[in-house]
Amino acid sequence: MSEPAVAVGPERARPDDPVAPARTPRRRRVPLGSRLRRDWQLLAMVAPGFLVLLIFSYLPIAGNVIAFQDYNPYLGDNPWQAFTHSNWIGFGQFQLLFDDPAFWDAFRNTLAITGFQLVFFFPLPILLAVMLHNLLSSRLRGLVQTIVYLPHFFSWVLVISFFVAMLGGAGLLAQTMRDAGVQPWNVMTNPDTFIVLVTAEAVWKDVGWGTIVFLAALSTIDQSLYEAAAADGAGRWRRLWHITLPGLRPVIVLLLILRLGDALSVGFEQFLLQRDAVGRQAAEVLDTFVYHFSIATGNYGYGAAAGLFKAVVGLVLILAANRVAHLLGERGIYSKS
Amino acid sequence: MTVIIRRPPRARPHRPVWEERPTRVGQALKATLLTLLVLGVLFPLWVVLVTSLSSRRTIADAGGLVVVPKGIDTSAYATIFAGGAVTRALWISTLVTVCGTAIALTVTVLAAYGLSRPGTLGHRWLLAYFLIPFLVYPPLVPRYLVVTGLGLKDTIWALVLPSAISVFNLVVVRGFFQGIPQELLDSARIDGASDFRTLGRIVLPLSRAVVAVVGLFYAVGYWNVWFDALLFIDRNDMYPIQRVLQSYLLAGQAPHTSGAASGVTMPPTEAIKMAVVVLTVAPIVAVYPFIQRHFIKGVLIGAVKG
Lengths: 337, 306
Description:
The structure holds 2 protein chains of 2 kinds. Chain A is built from 16 helices and 2 strands.
């Protein structure tokens, strides 16, 4: 495809006039009324998005306050009336929550799964990206990329359907084992190996997609570094260790921080879909806990409290991780400068 | 009018002189890994497709899923398209995807352009307003109460409106718009074009690639909607396809297909299940190759500058 933007690149659009400033200087001290008259069209363009976020993002965020209520959905005619009629009970819901062993089970499961995926999933896209980057044939590389990106666009329902078809009780694996006269096992319903299963599903869905950002980072590494290192006698592994990996470090750190910020949300749909087949002991995570103890049972204040707890811990984690990254001299998600 | 543009000859792959030849073992290992990876994605798709197109007898002989096809039998698809839950769900999903993508693209493009011009009134505040939801997810319970409180329950609007803008997509489009030279927009303004006209006549025609990519992201998102349907759709006849797929495959329910041919010609349920999987995958696999080439470029351009 031709890239239309190329035709109007800056080198063509800018006349060689040394007097003209490159950009309009920022106008200050323009009265509000005339700025409004000047910008009203741009503001009108922003308005629909503004409204959508106001209603479906900001209003729910403010709605977190029902975590401090004994929210009763049956008071009044609509959620708003129910909200104004419900009693304020302070931290009562949180006290209940912290005394609930089911909550701590979900908490532990969540951390275990996050930790497991950090070790067994996080490095894989990096390895794959390095491997793809080293392929000489760009045609082959493109083909592999096209195919491995695809599952990212499948829904979790589809991904799990594929896993059921392959590994489930009536799936291909069990079928083959039965034909071979071996007692088949059903991976999809085994709570002991659930953590491996969900990681495998996540890998299947997103390992390819995860390489994009690393491939982009790899393509920015200066080739002459490799040449110089080779001239100094560094073999391929030394070059990998001393040039490639340091080149990827900022991206790795950034993604680690983001992952840590999400440590308490391992993914909603994947777990909700498999919770019943595997059982609560292994498959209940904080997200499914929130769902089951609020919307499924009507105990909204309780679920809101669990959700708020999760959000606050997540925010603290991401800020802390970013802080640590700064202390280690990395850029992190935002820099102070 | 067809202009054939000859591609420049592909640069022959060449290895820098300083780089060692790969070892035999290394090459074999790399080839094996990549083959396994590609097969790991394609093999399940193949098995599901073949099973959905197999006759009852082939499936029984294979003992469940079919790997090697033996003839083609489309009776599973015929049953599904004779009407019933799957057909209806496909319509609902199509409706949600088309409406949702159109609305979301409009909202996103407008907001992205409005936010792409620096120095306008309240620019920094508005930008912060749009970026904060990127870091703070709307919490589940209050979100549920807001959507039901607006009376959207059991309508397709409950699936369309809450995700009518994704901040990630907004950042991508805005980044692209910022790359358009200011001089071009200034000249439009001098010629008397309003901001809306500038967007429609100058900016959008330059941005087809990024709009296509973001449109694909929205479309895939709407086609894949499952959890919102679990939350907001209680009526069976309003289920989108993902919800039906879940009830067929994961909850292990028997499919109810009204209008199915009676008696001996009933196709095997395994074929129907797999046919539902195929119908759910098909739109994604069909659109994917056309957009695939653009998205890496599109996303990276936007993300880097955003």
